[in-house]
Amino acid sequence: MALNMEIITWGRIGVSDMLLTGCTCTALLAFFLAYAGASRWYWAFYILMALAVLAKGPVGIVLPGLIVGVFLLYVGKFREVIQEMKIWQGMTIFLVITVPWYVLVILANGEDYINTFFGYHNLERFTSVVNRHGAPWYFYFVVMLVGFAPWSAYLPWSMARLEFWRRRFWRRQPRAEHLGLFALIWLVVIFGFFTIAATKLPSYILPAIPGAAILVALGLATVESKGLSKGLRWSVWANTVLLLVFAVLVVYLPYEMERDPAMPDFRNGLIESGLPTLAGLILGLTAVAGLLVQEIGWAGDFWTGRLLDGVTKIGDKGNGRG
């Protein structure tokens, strides 16, 4: 979760998006802990969701609410879980934390704050393009591919291995086994929500990154017990290509940078520092090393399997003669 371009970049920029992401995603993790059996975590869910709203407005409750709602409907536990969540007590805690600040700031700033914050920065950003931040429908596919690199190459395999279309199967599983499905819905809901929104920015997809990280981590955790599947091998090859493309781009893109009047020597200084070349070399070597590790590991598993099969057949023949 920490080592991807989106988190590394936005974790070092002075905007509230990362605070919103931290509060929203820990709220979702608190919900799942409670859902899996530790019910006291529902209180943390409400508190963290309230902090997310204080960080960046109504989206702090809209996103967790949509994710939890879709998830519970899918697993057929909506009424059951809503009852155990003590929703009225929880919403009371939520309102006690959030309402005072909004009341005070509205009293201090009046109608201008309501129109600017709730109207312009929330409603209008969803329904229309603000500050020329429009983008095509596939915008977040590109953002996820680049922003979640190098792990984005493993996302399709991580999602497909869950067989999420088997709804009856998932409904029969114990709650604690639903983490992968929950992470998938977490990712898809946020991805879909901001794809529908008219205004698009790379930072909007940040709250989806931890969900994607959980998906990939759960997938890679199965390798030790199940070995390298065909889907995972294709993912490693895709990741190799992705890293090699990045290696080339990071070396040559500085030459295409426009001169910034505020930093007229930045472009030349960056090129002369040799950092782009070093970064390209590191990315290229990482790509090759990762591929070699996979292929050597796969070859070892393959020949070990063949050897064990041969030993088993010899043993069976020996037993037959005996």
What distinguishing features does this structure have?
single chain, 322 residues, mainly alpha, 16 helices
Molecular structure report:
The structure is a single chain. With 322 residues, the protein is mostly helical. The chain is 74% helix and 0% strand. It contains 16 helices and no strands. The protein is flat, with a radius of gyration of 25 Å. The N and C termini lie far apart (57 Å). The mean pLDDT is 85.
How is this structure best summarized?
By secondary structure, this protein is mainly alpha-helical. It has 16 helices and no strands.
What is the straight-line distance between the termini? 57 Å
Rough outline: flat
Oligomer state of the chains in this structure: single chain
* Helicity range: over 70%
Order of helices and strands: HHHHHHHHHHHHHHHH
Mean pLDDT: 85
Largest sheet: none
What is the rounded Rg?
A: 25 Å
Poorly predicted runs are none
Q: Provide the β-strand percentage band.
A: under 5%
Number of helices: 16
Q: Helix- and strand-based class?
A: mainly alpha
Question: How many beta-strand elements?
Answer: 0
